[in-house]
Amino acid sequence: MLEFDGSFQEPFDLLGIDDPECPKSDIRAAFRKVARVEHPDVSAFDDAEERFRRISLAYELLIDDGGRAMLLEAIEKKADDLEELEVKKNAVDEVNENWDETWVEDEFTAVSRTVFLIFMAGGIGSVIWWFGFDHE
């Protein structure tokens, strides 16, 4: 991932992938297509080995669900580097942080939940007893 630090769109561009949400089969097909042209054995470029190494890294990163998710998050947050990705927040992060402050369980809520669970367990137990046994 550090290889593409700051240019999170580059792995998609190296493989010629337009849709970042494409299935893995499309990523494999794109890699095969690019590898046929860029492989050092067939490429005429002087830096063919370096180019193919970067293409291989891009493929490994995109085929991994976690790596692709990190790239998509960096693109969504418009992060300039990985450190900024850790610090920069999106709307979902802010809502998740505010959730802990919003949802505070007081004594009344805890007692109400306990009473509800006792009545629920008793009701379910009664239904099981009623339908589960013969009452002649």
UniProtKB/TrEMBL annotation:
CDD domains hit by this protein: DnaJ
Biological process per Gene Ontology, one example term: protein refolding
Swiss-Prot/TrEMBL keywords: Coiled coil, Membrane, Transmembrane, Transmembrane helix
Pfam short name (any one): DnaJ
Domain J: 10-83
Segments traversing the membrane: 115-133
UniProt xrefs under Gene3D superfamilies: DnaJ domain
One MF term in the entry's GO annotations: unfolded protein binding
GO cellular component: cytoplasm
Listed InterPro entries: DnaJ_domain, J_dom_sf
Top-rank taxon: Eukaryota
Sections of the chain in a coiled coil: 68-102
This protein's record includes keyword Ribonucleoprotein: no
The keyword Coiled coil is assigned to this record: yes
Protein name: J domain-containing protein
